[in-house]
UniProtKB/TrEMBL annotation:
It comes from the Bacteria. Keywords: Elongation factor, Protein biosynthesis. GO terms for molecular function: translation elongation factor activity. This is Transcription elongation factor. It comes from Candidatus Scalindua japonica.
């Protein structure tokens, strides 16, 4: 994990994730392994001990989309159940049980999960 120096400050950095130090370091290391440069900084208003030390992961503007794709894939690899749930939701199926639901259904008729579909 690096903090942008004065030379790098001329590069346009974009925040892609915020989290605790371990999670941000894991993502930064994964992106670095995939040849995407990263920078890490404390979250705004955060100083040691006052906010639980939240960190922001940044990449250059030109690498935002690629970095987000790697982060999404990394997360789905760590949590494969989320991939299946997302696929079901995309097919208008309940993300919890897979039951067919319509677009306007507020609750799954099979398992009772409250459904909130972004439109």
């Amino acid at each position: 994990m690096e903090t942008p120096n004065s030379e790098e400050a001329q590069v346009e950095w974009v925040a892609v994730k915020e989290g605790d130090q371990d999670w941000i370091k894991e993502l930064a290391d994964m992106l670095t392994e995939n040849d995407i440069g990263t920078a890490v900084t404390l979250a705004p208003g955060c100083s040691a001990g006052t906010c639980g030390c939240r960190f922001i992961l940044m990449v250059t503007e030109e690498n935002v989309d690629e970095a987000q794709d790697y982060i999404d894939e990394h997360y789905m690899t760590m949590h494969p159940e989320h991939r299946e749930s997302q696929e079901w939701a995309d097919q208008n199926r309940c993300p919890a049980c897979g039951h067919d639901v319509g677009k306007d259904v507020k609750e799954c008729p099979d398992c009772g999960l409250v459904l909130i579909f972004e439109g």
